[in-house]
Specification:
The complex is a heterodimer of chains A (589) and B (427). Chain A is α/β, with parallel strands linked by helices and 589 residues long. Chain A is built from 15 helices and 25 strands. In chain A, the strands form 9 sheets. Chain A has a 5-stranded mixed sheet with strand order 2-1-5-3-4, sandwiched between helices. Chain A has a 5-stranded parallel sheet with strand order 12-19-13-14-15. In chain A, strands 16-17-18 form a 3-stranded antiparallel sheet, with no helix packed on it. Residues 186-195 of chain A have low confidence and may be disordered. Chain B is an alpha/beta fold. In chain B, helix 2 runs parallel beside helix 6 (103-116), helix 2 (32-40) packs across helix 9 and helix 14 runs antiparallel to helix 15 (351-368). Classes of the chains: A alpha/beta (589), B alpha/beta (427).
């Protein structure tokens, strides 16, 4: 430890420490532009210049990269320091006359007008190099650097072209003091200013999350993205959360893992995903931040959402007119022909919420109001009484006016037989649901069939709605088809009961009609394995096909597929069938 | 033009024709010193000889060369030697003549330096415009290899050495040793924060000795003839011979090898043949474009040119590129040109140098075009002060020297531009 003086105050510090760090710790303000605690000091902006006296000699030095030493005398507010910063801010303000942050800092030193000709009024970059250093030192992507020299120096990727190595983390925009670096989204995002999703890479999933601890979004986290993109070559990028967490709770090694279980039954409850409304361009999704999906509306109106539950447009205003469009992607030959079942009810709920919270004019544009079930029709009637306007029809087009941001909906009210154009502030699209992308993979893993619209097939639509063709595999919820929350709960309860029934039997009786392989004839070609819809056949260690009698349903597909005649279906052997045919023929004769 | 009675030490090719041929060089005792060094001396002994000779860096700073060599960090390996041949100071053209006329003495100096600091790789960093020179040096290096003067187990001893040339892209700042190292590493040529200095943290972070071409060319004769012989030339503090690059308003511009301590008068009038048309000498820039102007009165002209006494008259010896200015030269116009050079050569890292020099040039443009006001002169003084106080490296700090010194000594010329829109020196 050493002792030095700053503005007349005697301070102890480690000799490794810079004057700036020690000053900040002691609460002595020193202005900076190119300094950031996350990266190495650079000494380019010169704003942190202070008066330093050592060995009887006094001079101006930058505090960010000058270390403290025994007996050093530092003065941060002398006439020379003031004059220096005043002249320096004159240079900055002349370079970037229209950056508010620089205007404010310059004003602190009495510079209100640029003292030199301002030939670059739009310039925002002061070449402090923070973006360059954060990209090199923290992110490790090294995609931006300086080019040219002297007054022509500028910041950018090589040859100022789009750099593939950029992971779009936005760290550069975060550290830029003047707002000169911006992230351009390749696809215009909804609610850029108030994102409807998580706002950072590390976040608590929801207010009700149990346990209430943060998770890392590995797609957004710089550490994981850099590791992923470079195939593990850069495995030490960022890591700031780890350095800052005092209890050491952050463990980057704790990644997703594959765990194997031995189970007696499986309930497939893989759910659904929301259909992407950009597939039908007439709905205008993506053309305006005020055209949102029902799910995005839920986020907006949720108390943990970006506006703390207030219903606001992207411009931050209370909407005066809102349209809710039903059947977006449902009951359409151009998207999904089925009814997604629960959208009518949540759309009615949302209409009620908008009316209740904002008092806005609400238009509900529907094809048929499907208020099935107990008390649902009553809720619909209440909505009508609240003054929500119901228009039966399907919008032909939703457009956004690029000048005033207003949204226009062209729709024919088929009850009135009248074509109308609605002028609204916000549109909520009740989008369809569809099976998740990886349904194929799930189907082949569990030996599931699928109905033509892609949902997993039940064993029988009326009699066995939770069972599948594979014994021991059951379906629950929207994996089998669209259904709302009460129906899903009931369906899941049924699936759980099936599992419990199965387990309670202790011993399972299976049908004797199963396939059997004659190992002497089997050539191990594997055709039967490919043909088996129940994944009941595997290749044993003698390279012969073998049937798992618990899985085999006796369908006989493998018998037909076996080219060497090695498989027989018990109780349906060739001899038995021939004998039956003979018997039938004998009867006729 | 001759270097005393003893003949040339550095510009020996002026006495011996075709000295840039390896055979000719060897006939005149070339590489004997290198062989003697490697076969019979310890590296530290070589450094001691250089220390005793009082040789100081010829690139401009005048730092004692032997002391620099002794700073090499022997805990960190490997070591490198880099010859700074980025000769970019306007008015300096001595290294080029050495490398063209007497290249083997320079290369022998590189080799002895490498032995002294136990380096096995040496690089010659040339400014980008020296591409022809680089090609010729490559040939000379190849000739040394053929002659068994480079490679492994030299002279049967456990010492190997390779020399390679490396060309920059033509940036003035790369003459600054840390910017030079950055450039060699393939990075943007901009200075590093010092300390650490290159002898502990240099090329690729390894201990590195960076020496000017002329400095290294001094090494073989010192090791051959001894420190006492060397100290017999020059002054007590500034020993040995020095090449003075004389240019500007003189009758015979060129390189002159004189012992340190020769006076300006001797150089300009005796060797340089005086001022054209018997004109009147007004000022001297002793260290190229970045030097303070010295008012050329009798006291200044009789000042011995060594590292200390030039400072007494307000200048710097630097790389000893003496630019002579007579009455026909307008000082503000001259300064305008100098600042134009620095605006082009500033690396742009720190704001005072990048923006300050740009603004200085704008104001000077205004003044010499007759548009200036007294407020401009005041503003110029503020920017000059800021740039001098606040620049990151010596480029910005010294770039303002000519402005600062002329605003002190030749203020009347600036004021003449403002008041009468012309200047006494305007022709």
């Amino acid at each position: 430890m050493i002792t030095f003086t700053i503005d007349g105050k005697t301070v102890e510090a480690s000799h490794e420490e810079s004057i700036l760090k020690a000053a900040r710790r002691e609460g002595v303000p020193i202005p900076t532009l190119c300094y950031h605690p996350a990266v190495e000091p650079y000494g380019a902006c010169r704003m942190c210049t202070v008066e330093v006296e050592r060995n009887g000699q006094t001079g101006l030095e930058t505090s960010c990269n000058t270390r403290v030493s025994e007996g050093l005398v530092v003065r941060t507010h002398t006439a020379d320091v003031y004059r220096f910063r005043q002249a320096l801010m004159g240079l900055y303000l002349s370079r970037c006359p229209n950056v508010p942050m620089l205007q404010e800092l310059a004003a602190e030193y009495g510079v209100t007008e640029p003292p030199f000709p301002t030939d670059t009024p739009d310039e925002k970059c002061i070449l402090c190099g923070l973006c360059v250093r954060v990209c090199h030192e923290i992110v490790g992507a090294k995609v931006i650097n300086f080019s040219n020299r002297g007054i022509d120096r500028r910041v950018g990727p090589p040859f100022l072209e789009v750099a593939d190595e950029c992971i779009g983390c936005g760290a550069c925009t975060l550290v830029c003091p003047t707002g000169a670096v911006e992230i351009a989204f390749e696809k215009e995002a909804i609610y850029i200013a108030k994102p409807t999703g998580p706002t950072s890479a590390i976040y608590v999933p929801s207010l009700q999350a149990i346990p209430r601890v943060p998770v890392i979004d590995t797609d957004a986290c710089i550490h994981f993205r850099q590791k992923d993109i470079t195939n593990g070559e850069i495995d030490d990028a960022c890591g700031f959360c780890q350095k800052l967490c005092e209890v050491g709770a952050i463990d980057f090694e704790q990644e997703d893992e594959i765990v194997e279980f031995d189970v007696g039954a499986i309930v497939v409850a893989t759910g659904f995903k929301m259909w992407d409304p950009t597939q039908l361009p007439e709905y205008g999704y993506g053309k305006s931040p005020n055209i949102i999906t029902g799910l995005e509306f839920e986020r907006l109106t949720g108390s943990a959402g970006p506006t703390a539950g207030e219903i606001l447009t992207a411009e931050g205003k209370k909407p005066e007119k809102v349209a809710i469009v039903h059947c977006v992607g449902s009951r359409s030959e151009r998207a999904h022909s089925y009814c997604s079942r629960f959208c009518c009810m949540y759309s009615l709920k949302q209409a009620h919420q908008i009316k209740d919270k904002t008092g806005a004019e609400v238009y509900s544009i529907y094809m048929d109001m499907r208020t099935f079930g107990k008390d649902y029709e009553e809720f619909y009637r209440r909505n009508r009484e609240e003054g929500i306007q119901f228009i039966q029809g399907r919008p032909s087009q939703i457009t956004a006016d690029s000048d005033n941001g207003r949204l226009y909906i062209d729709v024919e009210d088929i009850l009135l037989g009248q074509v109308m154009e609605l002028d609204v502030d916000m549109v909520v699209l009740a989008t369809a649901i569809e099976p998740p992308e990886n349904s194929d993979e799930i189907a082949s893993t569990f030996g599931l069939g699928r109905t033509p619209d892609g949902w997993f097939a039940e064993a029988h639509p009326k009699l066995r709605p939770v069972e599948t063709a594979t014994a021991g595999v059951f379906l629950a919820g929207c994996a089998q088809g669209p259904r709302d929350v009460p129906d899903t709960v009931a369906h899941a309860g049924a699936a759980a009961s099936e599992v419990v029934c199965l387990f309670n039997q202790g011993e399972v009786t299976i049908s004797p009609t199963i396939a059997e392989v004659d190992p002497a004839k089997c050539v191990g070609c594997g055709e039967c394995i490919l043909s088996c819809p129940y994944s009941a056949i595997w290749r044993n260690d003698k390279e012969k096909a073998e049937v798992n009698p618990a899985l085999c349903q006796g369908c006989g597909t493998c018998v037909a597929a076996c080219s060497s005649g090695a498989i027989t279906a018990l109780h349906f052997t060739n001899d038995e069938i021939v004998a039956q045919i003979d018997g039938l023929l004998a009867l006729v004769v | 033009m001759l270097m005393a009675e003893n003949g040339y030490v550095l510009l020996r090719h002026r006495d011996i024709p075709e000295l840039n041929n390896i055979d000719v060089y060897r006939q005149h005792g070339g590489f004997k010193t290198f062989e003697k060094t490697v076969t019979s001396m310890e590296p530290e002994q070589v450094t001691e000889v250089i220390k005793a000779s009082g040789l100081r860096g010829r690139g401009g700073a005048g730092f004692p060369t032997g002391l620099k060599w002794s700073f090499i960090d022997n805990k960190n390996w490997p070591h490198y030697v880099v010859a700074n041949a980025d000769e970019s100071e306007p008015g300096t053209f001595k290294d080029r003549e050495i490398m063209e006329g007497n290249p083997y003495q320079f290369l022998e100096g590189v080799a002895i330096c490498a032995y002294a600091v136990r380096a096995h790789d040496a690089y010659i960093y040339l400014r980008g415009e020296f591409w022809q020179l680089a090609a010729r040096l490559d040939q000379h290096i190849a000739a040394m290899q053929v002659a068994g003067l480079l490679g492994d187990e030299l002279f049967g001893m456990d010492f190997s050495l390779r020399i390679r040339t490396h060309r920059g892209a033509g940036a003035y700042i790369c003459g600054e040793e840390t910017a030079l190292l950055e450039s060699m590493e393939g990075k943007l040529g901009q200075p590093r924060l010092r300390p650490p200095f290159p002898p502990s943290f240099g090329l690729y972070g390894k201990p590195t000795i960076v020496n000017n071409v002329e400095t290294l060319t001094n090494v073989p004769p010192i090791v051959e003839k001894g420190a006492d012989w060397y100290r017999s030339m020059g002054t007590e503090q500034s020993t040995g011979p020095k090449i003075f690059s004389l240019s500007g308003r003189v009758n015979r511009p060129g390189n002159y090898e004189l012992p340190l301590g020769a006076t300006f008068r001797e150089l300009i009038f005796e060797h340089g043949g005086g001022i054209p048309n018997d004109g009147h000498i007004k000022a001297i820039m002793a260290a190229g474009a970045s030097s303070s102007l010295i008012v050329a009165n009798d006291e200044a002209l009789d000042t011995p040119m060594d590292y200390e006494r030039v400072q007494n008259v307000g200048g710097l010896l630097g790389s000893a590129s003496v630019i002579v200015i007579d009455d026909t030269v307008s000082i503000p116009r001259l300064i305008n040109k100098t600042i134009h050079f620095f605006k082009h050569e500033s690396c742009g890292k720190c704001t005072p140098c990048r923006e300050g020099i740009k603004r200085m040039l704008e104001i000077l443009d205004k003044i010499v075009s007759g548009q200036g006001t007294m407020a401009d002169i005041e503003q110029l003084e503020t920017v000059v002060w800021l740039t001098q106080q606040g620049s990151f490296c010596q480029l910005g700090i010294t770039a303002v020297n000519p402005v600062l010194s002329t605003m002190r000594h030749f203020r009347n010329e600036y004021i003449a531009y403002v008041e009468e829109k012309c200047c006494p020196g305007d022709v």
